[in-house]
């Protein structure tokens, strides 16, 4: 075969697949959102935005992302720094820290339900310490703060691992000479972290943040397992419109809103953490 | 060391050391303890799961797991999950590995555009695309089938599979392949005899990654299947009505493959992401 065409032959299957199952449905979802009974209309958007639950789910989704993602960045950076210094037991610690990477959001929600439910382990612990006489029902309307905390903890527990992996891989690419040079000139460990690690880690941070932020807007199963209807989120409304209300136009409209927010944040992160030309390792 | 007032640099260093070890131990516990709680609940009888206060040691009773296995439709859902994940794994690696190879070995016009398409796929809330696909599948007869769902999951797995295989192929020097050519191999035999044996464990690791992505996916599975639910979709649908011990046993069954898989791919996890970053 002519070597000039070979690469195209090799990328053809994936490209075709993505055209059919990624680009085409994307066009379809836009079409569905912007039309009612076959004609162009904004009625779907008016309906979903006007629904009383919409501002709450929007606020909840954004607040959750705002609470979870920064904690995850700091936690992942801390863990990655700890790992690079580790001499013994590095492999086993890394394995344990990356376990949540393979755990589904639904399973993570169920795991934290075991802790926060009425006969759960938090109650048992508090009972054992004599703090409560009878089990408290944490996950109710009366405790919106605890519902939020439980969901945020489950998300932090589950999804920090993906950032950790990306950051550890990124730190491995930073040349050791930079640190040696900084040490020679008397830079403290903290200074080295601020002046070498963080700037050199920018491409990895970018990738990690984009992945995480997009997944944060997609949050769904964790919330279903822990809060159910107590804590409406955007993705939950998509599901509700599709199944309970059987209104796929409205579901598509919210889907499109989530897409737009995600793309907006992706561009924002790309811009904020852009790597200057010629400054790559 | 007990004399805090007279701190020498050595004391601060050992204090720092203590803080460091304590931090590592705390973070290890942070990951493991919730998993241990799930294990206790799974290995306890339904009565123990619903009682209060809870014991912090499992009683090794199979009651919850038996209830799980006997629950109407549960084993079918488990089987569907495995089949969907297996199909996803096969399709995504078969079509992604050649693309990863092309990206690592050739410079061709349009390469940048193709990479952009792949990266764009990753920067997208893909499960949402299950909504229009549900309509498309009804038209083509793929609705409520494991194969239809596997196609959607393949879209989720492709960006990872392409970037991971790309980084794996990039790790093997071009010279190796060229040496094989000069020794009388064709492009194909050089690939099968030299590159493939080297790359196979890595390919297996990325295949496992694709399996896990599909196994764990909830939203698209819940949207696209009705009768043939996967385990995640089945558990999600029954969250409101199912008893606690069923949820915990189900959660446990969801977690077990993840534990094994992450263990199997742990060596590749970081190599996979090293270049996939760029």
How is the secondary structure organized here?
The complex is a heterodimer of chains A (281) and B (278).
Chain A: H1 6-33, E1 35-36, E2 39-40, H2 43-50, H3 53-85, H4 90-98, H5 105-116, H6 121-128, H7 144-172, H8 176-184, H9 189-200, H10 202-217, H11 221-226, H12 234-243, H13 248-272
Antiparallel strand pairs in A: 1-2
Helix pairs in contact in A: 1-13, 2-13, 3-7, 3-10, 5-7, 7-10, 10-13, 12-13
Chain B: H1 9-42, H2 46-50, H3 63-70, H4 74-105, H5 111-122, H6 130-140, H7 146-170, H8 174-182, H9 187-216, H10 219-224, H11 231-237, H12 244-276
Helix pairs in contact in B: 1-12, 3-12, 4-7, 4-9, 4-11, 5-7, 7-9, 7-12, 8-9, 9-12
Task: List key phrases describing it.
heterodimer, A: 281 residues, mainly alpha, MetI-like fold, two-stranded antiparallel sheet, 73% helix, globular, B: 278 residues, 2 domains, 0% strand, disordered N terminus
Span from first to last CA of chain B? 47 Å
Using the CA coordinates, give the radius of gyration of chain A: 23 Å
CATH class of chain A: Mainly Alpha
Poorly predicted sequence stretches spanning 5 or more consecutive residues of chain A: none
CATH superfamily of the largest domain in chain B: MetI-like
Strand order of the largest sheet of chain A: 1-2
Q: Which oligomerization state do the chains in this entry correspond to? A: heterodimer
The greatest interface here is: A-B, 92 and 92 residues
The biggest beta sheet of chain B, please?
Answer: none
Regarding CATH, which class of the largest domain in chain B?
Mainly Alpha
Radius of gyration of chain B over all CA atoms, rounded: 24 Å
End-to-end separation of chain A in angstroms reads: 37 Å
Shape of chain A: globular
Shape of chain B: globular
CATH fold category name of the largest domain in chain B:
MetI-like fold
**Number of distinct helices of chain B:** 12
Q: Supply the helix-strand structural class of chain A.
A: mainly alpha
State the helical fraction of chain B: over 70%
Q: Within the CATH hierarchy, at the fold level, what is the topology of chain A?
A: MetI-like fold
How many β-strands of chain B, per DSSP? 0
